[in-house]
Amino acid sequence: MSRRSRRGIVAGLTTALAGCGGLLPGYGDSSSTPPTESGESTTPDEQGEDNTSSTTESNESTSSTQEEDTNDQSASVAETDYPTSDVLLSVPELGEGYNLTGETQQAQSSSDGDELDTLREAGIVRQHERSFRLETNDSDRASVVFSSVTVYESSDIAKSAADELLTSIRDSGGSVEDQNVLSGVSASVAVFENAEGALNTLFARRSGPVQYYVVTSDQAEYFRDQTHDLFVRMVTATPD
User: Fold this and answer.
1) Separation CA 180–CA 195 (nearest Å)
2) What is the Cα–Cα distance from 31 to 48, expressed in whole angstroms?
3) What's the mean per-residue pLDDT of the chain?
4) Model-level pTM?
5) For residue range 192-234, what is the model confidence (pLDDT) as tens digits?
6) Which residues have CB under 8 Å from 92's CB, separation 6+?
7) CB 52 within 8 A of CB 83
8) How far, in Å, CA of 30 to CA of 157, rounded?
9) Residue 21, phi-psi category: left (phi > 0), alpha (psi -120 to 50), beta (remainder)
10) How confident is the model over 73-82, as pLDDT tens digits?
11) How far apart are alpha carbons 213 and 233 in whole angstroms?
């Protein structure tokens, strides 16, 4: 696996998906949330551990229906115009009881130093992510939700990152399948358990150089229906 692809997966999930027992090397501290827009980390009150994650092993195989190969979209146009904030989930969409526990935005155009090097190495033009936690005792919804949109430099780089993410989940004992989420729209769906016993459900899709997904995590059960419904909200907000 190329260093660029490996860093793409690490950068794509960030610390919001850390602390999950080996699926994401190098991110073992789940006590802090992802950086704010200014790049500083925050630690909200009563924030629990976020129990989702990914791995970094490589394989060429993946779900073809998760991909929509649009001809070379300009990275500069995507960086300027792609509505990441609209596509990402928000507290009102998740419903009463969820709090925003972290949000991060990174872009090559506004980064420097190590952060810029990391983004360039991963082929990421722009990335926007949010994490949420359920602060009630509602057993009908997942305790943690993570939403992410990443604009890559090219469709090929985005495809490589998507392929490796799904393959690494398979290699770690999870399952991946395709599912129609709307008429004419398919997604890759993965379910997997981490070393701490958290049960994670991922819905992901790639369109050209853009990869977006939602993950739910809970200690008690998989919340596939909830994850599906949240992902449909993301799909319907995309400009595809």
Assistant:
1) 30
2) 7
3) 75
4) 0.72
5) 998 788 999 999 999 999 999 999 999 999 999 999 999 999 9
6) none
7) no
8) 28
9) left
10) 444 444 457 9
11) 11
Residue 39's CB is within 10 A of a number of other CB atoms, namely: 12
Q: What does the alpha-carbon distance between residue 13 and residue 192 come to, in Å, rounded to a whole number?
A: 15
Count Cβ neighbours within 10 Å for each residue of 213-240 and write b for 16 or more, e otherwise: bbbbbbeeebbbebbbebbbbbbebbee
Tokens coding 93 = 């969409």
Cα dist from 227 to 13, 14, 45, 109, 230, whole Å: 17, 20, 25, 32, 5
The yes-or-no verdict on residue 21 having pLDDT over 60 is no
Whole-angstrom CA distances from 185 to 208, 232, 240 are: 14, 10, 10
Angle between helices 3-13 and 113-122 (to 10 degrees): 110
Quote the percentage of the chain above a pLDDT of 70: 66
Distance of alpha carbon 29 from alpha carbon 63, whole angstroms: 31
Structure tokens at 240: 């595809």
Residue type, 208: G
Residues 6+ apart with CB under 8 A from 35: 41, 42, 102, 104, 106
Residue appearing with tokens 């992802």: 34
| Residue 97: Cβ-neighbour burial (10 angstroms; 0-12, 13-18, 19+) | middle
Task: Say which residue the tokens 């976020």 belong to.
Answer: 50
Token pair, residue 71, equals 């001809």
Say which residues have a Cβ less than 8 Å from residue 153's Cβ, sequence separation at least 6. Answer: 75, 123, 124, 125, 209
DSSP 8-class letter at 162: H
